[in-house]
Amino acid sequence: MFRKWIATLLFAIPLACFAQNIDLLILNKNYPEALTQIKRTLAVSPDAELYFKQGMIYRQVSRPLYAEQSIGQAIALDSTNSRYLAEFADLQMELGNPFKAIPYYQKASLFQPEDYDLKFRLGKAFMSTENLEQAYGTFMMLRYKDSTNVVYNRQLGLAAFRWQKFDQAIDLFESVLDVNPNDLSMYQNLITLYAANKDAVNVVRTADRALYFFPENSSILLRESNALYSIKEFVEAKPVYEQYLAKNDSIFDVMKNYGLCLYTVKDNVKARQILEKCFEVEQDDPILNFYLGMVCRYLSDLPKSIEYLNYAIEGARIGMTEMYHSLGQVYGLQREFGKSIEALKEAYKCDPQKTEILVEIANTYDEFNPNKKLALEFYSKYLAEAGDSAINAPYARERIGKIKEFSLKNKKSGIAAER
C-alpha cells in the first residue's frame, strides 16, 4: 500500500509541475510553446482542464473556431463545470450564435445559482434572440436581488424599452443617469421615449442635460430636433435644427425637416431656399414637392406652385387628396377654373369622405360658368352627402335658393318677352 501511494505521488508531482509550467507560459504570453506542450500531453492523456486552457489560448490569439472545439472537448469530459459551460456560451455570443449560447448559460447557472453575472449574461443572450419576455424576467430577478446595481437597472431599462414598457423604462433610465450622468445612450433613449409620449418639455430637458455633459456632441441636437419634429413641435424644432446645421454638413433628411419647420412658422422665403436645395438632390420626393408647391403658393409664385404640386401628384402613393385639393385651389387663384375643377374632382375621387371639396367645386362652377346647372348639381350633391348639419350647409342652401330664384326670374322674363 505504501509503495502504491509513493508511486501515485511520484506520478502527480510531474503533472503538477507541468500544470505550473503551462500556467507560467500563458502568463508570459508564450502561447506557441504552451500550445505545443498541451497538444503533446493531450495526445497521451485527454484532460478537461488542459482542453479548457487550450481553448482559452485560442481565444487569446483570435482563433475562435479552434477555441470552440477545445472548450467543447473540455465539456465532453466534464459536463458539470460551470466555468467551461459559461466560457463556451460567451464564445458562442462572440461568434454571433446567441441561440446556442443560451442552453449553456442556463446549465452553468444551475451549478452556480448565486452567480448573478452569469444570469446577467444569460439575460443579454435572451435580448439578442429577441426573447424579450425571458430577458425582462431575468433582469427583473437581478434587480430584485440588487436594486442599486446600475448595470442591472440599465439592462432592465433596455429590456423594458424594447418590450414597450415605456413608463418603467423611463423611470429606470432616469435612475441610471442619477448615478451615472455620463451615459450618453441613456439620454438618447430617453429623448426617444419622451417623444413617443409626446412630452416636448422632457425632450428638451433631457437634451439640455445631455449637452451639459457632452457639449460637443451634435448627435444630441439631431436627436432632439428630430424628436420635436416627430411630435409636430415645429417651432421648438427649428432653432435646434439650426444649431445642428451650424456645426455639421447638411444631409437631405435634415434639410427637408428643417425646411418644413420653416414652412410651418411661415418663414416662406427661407423655406423655399432650403427646400429647393433639397429638390436639387431629390426630385421624386412627393412630400418635398407638395410643400414646395405650398410655399410657392404663399409666395404668389403660382406657376411654380402648380409645377411642384404636379410633381408631387406624379410621385405620390398616399396623401393625393390634399395634393389634388391644393392644386385645384392654386389653379383657382390663377383663374384657370377648368383645371381647378378637374383637380378638385380628382381630390374628391381620392377620398369621397372629404365632402367639403364638393362645395368648392360647386362654388367654382358658380363663379365662372354662367350656366348654373352644374353649380346647382354639386351644391345639391354636397347637401345629400354631408347632411344638413355640415359646416357649409347653410351656404349651399342659400346658393341653391338664389340660383333657383334667378332661374325662375329668367324664365318669367323670357315668357314675358315672347308675349
Describe the structure.
The protein has 419 residues and is mainly alpha-helical. Helix content is 80%, strand content 0%. The chain has 23 helices and no strands. It has helices spanning 2-27, 31-44, 48-60, 64-77, 82-94, 98-111, 116-128, 132-145, 150-162, 166-179, 184-196, 200-213, 218-230, 234-247, 252-264, 268-281, 286-298, 302-315, 320-333, 337-350, 356-368, 373-386, 393-418. Helix 2 (31-44) runs antiparallel to helix 3, helix 4 (64-77) runs antiparallel to helix 5 (82-94) and helix 20 packs antiparallel against helix 21 (356-368).
Helix-strand pattern: HHHHHHHHHHHHHHHHHHHHHHH
State the total count of DSSP E strands. 0
The major sheet is characterized as:
none
| Class per helix and strand makeup | mainly alpha
Distance between the termini: 150 Å
Instruction: Give the fraction of residues assigned to helices.
Output: over 70%
What is the average per-residue confidence, as pLDDT, rounded to a whole number? 87
> Uncertain segments of ≥5 residues (pLDDT<50)?
1-13, 415-419
Task: Give the number of helices.
Answer: 23
Shape: elongated
* Strand percent estimate: under 5%
Radius of gyration: 37 Å
